[in-house]
Amino acid sequence: MAEAINPEVTEEESSGSKNFIENEIEKDLAEGKYSHVQTRFPPEPNGYLHIGHAKSIILNYGLACEYGGKFNLRFDDTNPTKEKTEFVKSITDDVKWLGADFEDRLFFASDYFDKMYECAVMLIKKGKAYVCDLSAEEIKEYRGTLKEPGKNSPYRDRSVEENLTLFENMKNGMYADGEKVLRAKIDMASPNINMRDPVIYRVARIAHHNTGDKWCIYPMYDFAHPIEDAIEHITHSICTLEFEDHRPLYDWVVRECEFAEPPRQIEFAKLYLTNVVTGKRYIKKLVEDGIVDGWDDPRLVTIAALRRRGFTPESIRNFVKLVGVSKADSSVDYAMLEYCIREDLKLKCNRISAILNPVKLVIDNYPEEEIEYLDVPNNQENPELGVRKVPFAKELYIEAEDFMEVPPHKYFRLFPGNEVRLMNAYFVKCTGCEKDENGNVTVVHATYDPETRGGNCETRKVKGTVQWVAAKTAVSAVVRLYENIVDEEKGKLNADGTLNLNPNSLTVVEDAKIEPSVKGAAKYDRFQFVRNGYFCVDAKDSTDDKLVFNRIVSLKSSFKI
Ligand code: ATP
Ligand code: MG
Fold first, then answer.
1. Domains and CATH numbers, the chain
2. Which of the ligands is closest to the CA of residue 56?
3. For the segment 208-236, what is each residue's pLDDT rounded down to a tens digit?
4. Is the CB–ligand 1 distance for residue 244 below 6 Å?
5. Rounded-to-integer distance, Cα 286 and Cα 303, Å
């Protein structure tokens, strides 16, 4: 269910009251629990970041800024089976692009492996951890269920000395993967299953992207994460709701490892968006199956994809602010993200003419070779963007849909006998058309009134305004139009768990005709195509010879072309 969020909410209204995390932080500061605020974003480098992560980044960074604290980017790279350096680079780029300035505060959890090992030894010495020989299946069996308590492992009462020796042997590579694990000794009867002697170290003979072959034992997330936070003096460890049940274990680890100023975990609800695919697992599958053109395919909502599509960091920051922070899971309408990018680009972009489905319009009474240059404001709502010269000539392109030989009721565009305004140019009166053998219109004919230059006339009015580009000077470009990648109406998932893909998610217009002011446009340059929405020069496929544009968003809240 989409949460009802009113996108018309003003900035003042949305920032008027504090969210529950701010309230908690302020309480902690007032009570002297912490003297400062330190937050972090802790991604696992196992995929590209998506819009959900953007929320976490902006939230954590925003809190650090708000309370004059620091913000760390820390790679949670404790599981070498899935992690890659390719992702370290993409994630770093994305965080920077979003404007979350971590300065030189870039950290890797793997740099703390020594300290984590020391913590584990300390727990063993305190009688709070033991080496267990049960297999993964047996551990699961012994763990019990939500209704039944677990059973103690037969290895639970090993002596401290034996545990120290065995753990050292684990570190020294004397056991195969899965043969032995180190477990926290907490409570097998705890109502919280996470507290039933969780595994904190496992044997894994895999090289690590940072530490190479130094280690063949790796810490488990629930043990490593609180230690990482504590080492970095994080005060508020903000994470998503699925970790709520892990909080007692988090607290246990920082307490038993005797960190002086233990961090505090606070959970918030994940951001879900309608009509798109969030979740690394699904995105990865789309990439691997070749359904999309890489992790930055503009139909995805990875941050790389949003950037490539033409979203601005400002629009995403604004979106996150509008969505707010909550404790309850909900889905936000994709239309809200669209609203934010439209608002951001409205006054920033030149509004230019682009004809996606062109048909020729010939002005029969216009001089043959003449090209005249008309003054056109770059953005009617923002005079600061200035004025440009747009060429006008006898042969133009207009949208095919702007002419009809037999018009329906209330059609105010071109049809024989009707007069319209060519945007910013002249009044023209349609005189007829030419058709091919199949009856398709190939050329529309009209005559113009030289007295109406600029598209104004004192003596008569027209009901329709039609956009155009001069044929001789038009730039031919590829334009890509997008629809949502999953069919939300029928459900994102099919019965078998696969994604219910929308077959029309990408439409490529191979030969759009655009006014010459786009010549030389650089990658990421953005324009409003007057009638069709906001577009961005594709950073991967566009060349000087053939510009490629991605539609960022249409003008109206509709995915129809
Ligand atoms: P995914 O569920 O998409 O695979 P993840 O949680 O495995 O993502 P991590 O790299 O572990 O990805 O996440 C880094 C941080 O981003 C974590 O603190 C996590 O809670 C947060 N995060 C992940 N997804 C979302 C989301 N949809 N909304 C808000 N925060 C998120
Ligand atoms: Mg994860």
1. 11-268 (3.40.50.620), 274-345+476-514+520-561 (1.10.1160.10), 353-470 (2.40.240.10)
2. 1
3. 989 999 999 999 999 999 999 999 999 99
4. no
5. 16
